[in-house]
Amino acid sequence: MGSSPPLALIFVLLLFPSSAPSRARSASVVTRLPGFRGPLPFYMETGYVEVDEVNEAELFYYFIESERNPIEDPLLLWLTGGPRCSAFCGLVFEVGPLKFVSAKYNGSLPSLVYRPYSWTKVSNMIFLDSPAGSGFSFSRHAEGYDAGDRSWSKHAHTFLLKWFIDHPKFLSNPLYIAGDSYAGKIVPIVTQEVLNGIEAGKQPPLNLQGYIIGNPITGERADLNSRVPFAHSMGIISDDFFELTQRSCEGQDYRSPTDAKCEMCLNTFDEFLSEINLGYMLDPKCARTSPKPKTPDRRTLQEEYLYLLKPPPIPALYCRNYAHFLSYHWANTDIVRKAIHVKKGTVGEWQRCNYDLPYTEDINSSIMYHLRVTSKRYRALVYSGDHDMLITFVGTNEWIRSLNFSIVDDWRSWHVGGQVAGYTTSYSNNLTFATVKGAGHTAAEYKEKECFAMIRRWLSHKPL
Amino acid sequence: MGSSPPLALIFVLLLFPSSAPSRARSASVVTRLPGFRGPLPFYMETGYVEVDEVNEAELFYYFIESERNPIEDPLLLWLTGGPRCSAFCGLVFEVGPLKFVSAKYNGSLPSLVYRPYSWTKVSNMIFLDSPAGSGFSFSRHAEGYDAGDRSWSKHAHTFLLKWFIDHPKFLSNPLYIAGDSYAGKIVPIVTQEVLNGIEAGKQPPLNLQGYIIGNPITGERADLNSRVPFAHSMGIISDDFFELTQRSCEGQDYRSPTDAKCEMCLNTFDEFLSEINLGYMLDPKCARTSPKPKTPDRRTLQEEYLYLLKPPPIPALYCRNYAHFLSYHWANTDIVRKAIHVKKGTVGEWQRCNYDLPYTEDINSSIMYHLRVTSKRYRALVYSGDHDMLITFVGTNEWIRSLNFSIVDDWRSWHVGGQVAGYTTSYSNNLTFATVKGAGHTAAEYKEKECFAMIRRWLSHKPL
């Protein structure tokens, strides 16, 4: 922790005047959800798993059984990015079986409807609020919120082991670790953790099969450096300025350039990007919420358009992130918290993404983890919405190529409903890369049908 | 004419068993249109102007007065591409004040409604079916259909002179020549024709101010060669294949490569493109209508997705070109033809684009015309929908830069409604280049509001 804890943390600490003991693990079936008409058409459970006994940190999760064949279908652990965005976002905006009705908020509870292209149609899914301080996950001690890449990954692994102890019937299902954006950096690290645990004979034995990441951060230069050629090819910067920047910044790390001319170029570049919806360059840039960060965008990997501070801002109804606004009003309602069995007094205001708490990027790059895990023949699917400027498919393609795997199935289109849905290359070591044509940062939010077909095929070991 | 005239031409000739004389010019006010509820909320006139006395070729036009101040607002002559697409397409799908209601065709007349972002809100517009054989324009002799770049341009000029004789009150309005796609090649040539006429003292004196072109063809290599880097940057072809093609095709004209390896690469490239909606790469590729052309796409500049032969195919209702299908059913109805005063027996089936008739590209490149006209200080606006793969903004940007004009207002974003609508550069010689973000080949069809703001500002001599 820094020397002056942020206000939110002080608030969190006030919530636990006495360190009352609580059950380390809990699980409750949820058959109805406020805002959703009738009983849920799928099996859902929420619960907590303590992952840090010293600090009494408990991670909250939403578990949804496969709507096809829960006994045999794979099990996906879904982590959401940020870091510290709630996994509920993954559930309700991306790959889960619910979505908000985009109707003007009138003070009453926002409505939820069934989302037909849910990945739970073909897999069991755990949406995990992690690390502590995300969504409804909490810690009873301030130190429990002091997360980083390493602790997040370890906690996710601890979570899995304990969760499976309570759910032994899923131990034989193929297990995949999944997530996107910043979670794309953590997923291979968690996979490595699980793999280490398996090799060390940790109990219970997990049936790990591989991992899935969308528009993932790696921590490599390519994540941000690639924005410049991508912005050029998308017609956002001119030929001349592109060439000048390339020349001035050759060999530089765009996050911390040492060359003054490069620095100047990147400042201009930031101005060009600041006008654009980076998550999907063709969408309007909608109400942004927080004061402009003092550091230029390129310095940080936070998803700028997810950067919602409390109180939530109100985007226009036509904006894609209007539903994000609704999520605040849903998740912060007492009857909702009661319905999903949130422990009283553990979390103040639920936030889509909680950037108030400290987070240490204590692993520079995930590349070695990708290499280690795939070289052990675990399967990997890396997909990229191709209109995302936060983590471009150009940069992702670049680091995948740098792994120097041989190509098994060369770059080709993949199809859904007779249309090109994107392009894919399969590499040795069971790694598949796929773009999603016309999708943004959280690809499944933009191309539901296509991303569902992608995951269905890939989980079934079929070509995309 | 070739030695075996196409069937359509024979049909056309059968329509004129006797060469009955007709009035060389006609004009009729149209106050109501079948399919449009109530009187038209703008002044509209249709008519014919004979442009080729020998062959008795008459061009059909739709004239719509500015809805603002017809006395002072500019007058735009709008030509549509193809060659030989009807200017009605420009009126009803792009920049005019009407559009089709996209409802399932049930045998009754398709409905039209008012299109609020019409360019006629700020300018008088003539939509000209040209050359003869397009839309409702016709010739009484087969030779009249034997058009090419030169004759089309001359006829457009002749049309203007005769039209102004009958409409002298518009002679003082600023005159602009406009059009997109293939018409983008013709527009600067027509402008040069008009300019020559002015310099030669032809009467009446036209108040030419400049020209406007959208996603224009030039006839230069850049038109097609640029598709390869553009497809690469859009993630349609792989890095490796892009590099191979660039290497193999260096210095080649992609329309007729002489190198075998290049030829092979381009054939593979054609296969990648054949799956995509070239007019807007993010739209689905909808019912295409004609048999696949025997020559690969890159050999021809015809707009592939406009390639509709009779009888029209039926795209899915969700397809953008469903309205194109409706246009056949509207324009081929007797009450419609009567309402717009089409001369009986002159045109068989109205077609969106009539590719049955011969057309000679007898001017290789329009570049010299751009140079000549702009060097005389006539104004030019070149705009490009930046998601068009038929004529990419990359290629257009390339030839504009090759003109070596100095930059007056360097590459910057332009805005509509607080959002980036595209990027623009202004050059000396009064040339402005603008991209339209997220628009396809016929930019105003995709981004109505933005293109309207663009033309309104540019016609008022304001920065975009």
UniProtKB/TrEMBL annotation, chains A, B:
Q: Report the Pfam families cross-referenced here.
A: Peptidase_S10
What InterPro entries does the record point to?
AB_hydrolase_fold, Peptidase_S10
User: Could you cite one Gene Ontology molecular function of this protein?
Assistant: serine-type carboxypeptidase activity
Keyword Signal among record annotations: yes
How far does the signal peptide extend, from start to end residue?
Answer: 1-24
Q: Keyword set for this entry?
A: Signal
List this protein's GO terms for biological process: proteolysis; secondary metabolic process
Instruction: State the family it belongs to.
Output: Belongs to the peptidase S10 family.
Can you say what this protein is called? Answer: Serine carboxypeptidase-like 18
What species is this protein from? Musa balbisiana (Banana)
What is the taxonomic lineage of the source species? Eukaryota, Viridiplantae, Streptophyta, Embryophyta, Tracheophyta
